[in-house]
């Protein structure tokens, strides 16, 4: 039996029951896997105010995504590597750390381009994958790994039909991402950049507007 890859998990962090999103896959007909969710100004949940979320998996069983614009303030990449006992090697690369969502905040996920992948990587789109094993951090710490990537602790999760209900209530817009929107620019800019991709002026956006 093949040995399971070690996951990115902060030592001592509590872990909830598995959400099953890894089996859901990314792109499925009639679902929004691979799309970005953009919070409407009327978003009631303060945890997702002005959030931009990459929806990594969406199916009849629910949905899972990574918040792209909530920086992780209390942990650096070097500190994370130390906690995981990963030795950085020159030339060490840096990677952006984000608070990926309120579920399993001690668990790490790397959203990255598909020029690097491992057996446990979840293919989100043809150009985008999600990996939760420490192998990818070792590769990045050694100067390798994917060309573009970001590391998130935690994720946003929805149960069956929950996301569809929120979209019907105009809580979210959806937009097709590009590499610049995913990996470039500052977190503070992403919400407006995502709206600009939809050609929407946030000053004119109301909570009653329809979704894309």
SSE topology:
Blueprint (H helix, E strand, L loop, with lengths): L35 E4 L12 E8 L2 E6 L9 H7 L12 E4 L3 E11 L8 E2 L4 E4 L2 H8 L7 E10 L3 H7 L3 E4 L3 H5 L3 H11 L15
Parallel strand pairs: 4-8
Antiparallel strand pairs: 1-2, 1-9, 2-3, 3-8, 5-7, 5-8, 6-7
Distance between the termini: 46 Å
Mean pLDDT: 85
Strand content: 25-35%
Give the CA-based shape: globular
Give me the Rg, rounded: 17 Å
According to CATH, what is the class?
A: Alpha Beta
In the CATH hierarchy, what is the superfamily? VC0467-like
Biggest beta sheet attributes: 9 strands, mixed
Q: Roughly what percent helix?
A: 10-25%
CATH architecture: 3-Layer(aba) Sandwich
Low-confidence stretches: 10-27, 208-212
Order of helices and strands: EEEHEEEEHEHEHH
**The number of domains:** 1
Structure class: alpha+beta
At the fold tier of CATH, the topology name is VC0467-like
Number of helices: 5
By DSSP, the count of extended strands is 9
Key structural traits:
single chain; 212 residues; VC0467-like; 9-stranded mixed sheet; 5 helices; 9 strands; 25% strand; disordered C terminus; UPF0301 protein CR162_17315; AlgH-like
Characterise the protein shown here:
- The chain is α+β, with helices and mostly antiparallel strands and 212 residues long.
- The protein is built from five helices and nine strands.
- Strands 1, 2, 3, 4, 5, 6, 7, 8 and 9 form a nine-stranded mixed sheet that branches.
- A hairpin with a 4-residue loop joins strand 6 and strand 7.
- The chain is globular and about 50 Å long.
- The termini are far apart.
